[in-house]
Amino acid sequence: MTRRRSSARRPAISVLRIGHRPGRDPRLTTHLALAARAWGAERMYLHPPDPILAERLAHVAREWGAGFTVEPAPDWKAVVRAHAGAVVHLTMYGEPIDRRLPELARQRRLLLVVGGAKVPPELFQRADWNVAVGAQPHSEVAAVAVLLDRLGGIPPARRRKGARRRIVPQPRGKRVLGPGGRKRGRDR
Ligand code: SAM
Q: Which of the listed residues 89, 92, 130 should we mutate to test ligand 1's pocket, taking the one with most ligand atoms within 8 A of CB?
């Protein structure tokens, strides 16, 4: 059975994305960053760096709230070395997530490392755990989202610090509040 853990005790999460191809797959890496942010991660290190993508996420933070940054990682090994916590490489070749979830949930800080088309073999040795979200190939976005969901789910819907907009959930249509609680755009 799939069990979620309480988000109150969840480890602080950073994501390291390696093998990004600036200009070739901006949507995929943007979606990875958006998913990590929505599920409560604090930052995404990006290797190689991509200032355009970092600015895109900075814009999201200005509109929808702070608390997540994209940081350049010209040297991914340096990020792994400097991380003061456990390093989890997400890979379909790893151990099943269910086997490692209790240990992962007990950590204070986790660095989740995801690859692109190819992953440097060295990463398997440098990680504390190599963890699979199912033993089939899928996507870095799905792997991060599922693990974060299992570790505590999406943080409660409240206005994030610095947010200019906030969604008011509706059974149908869109309702978005701007600064001072004013309605933004047309209700649909
Ligand atoms: N053959 C590659 C590999 O070594 O896993 C698949 C690359 S996949 C397009 C890109 C990334 O998605 C992988 O580096 C891994 O981080 C993540 N990924 C894909 N399937 C996964 C799975 N079943 N479990 C965990 N992570 C996965």
A: 92
- Which tops the pLDDT comparison, 51 or 117? 51
- The pLDDT tens digits of the residues spanning 58-69 come to 999 999 999 999
CATH number assigned to the domain covering 12-155+163-184: 3.40.1280.10
Which of 6, 18, 29 is CA-nearest to residue 149? 6
pTM equals: 0.91
What does each C-alpha distance from 185 to 140, 160, 175, 182 come to in angstroms? 34, 20, 8, 10
Work out which ligand 1 atom sits closest to the CA atom of 135. Answer: 23
What span, in angstroms and rounded, lies between the C-alpha atoms of 114 and 90? 6
Distance, in Å, from the CA atom of 140 to the CA atom of 6, rounded to the nearest integer, reads 23
Q: What is the DSSP letter of 179?
A: G
Average pLDDT, the chain: 91
Cβ–Cβ under 8 Å, residues 167 and 159: no
CA of 155 to the centre of ligand 1 (A): 25
Please provide the DSSP assignment of 106-165 as one string: H-SEEEEEE-SS---THHHHH-SEEEESSSS---HHHHHHHHHHHTT-SPPS-PPTT-S-
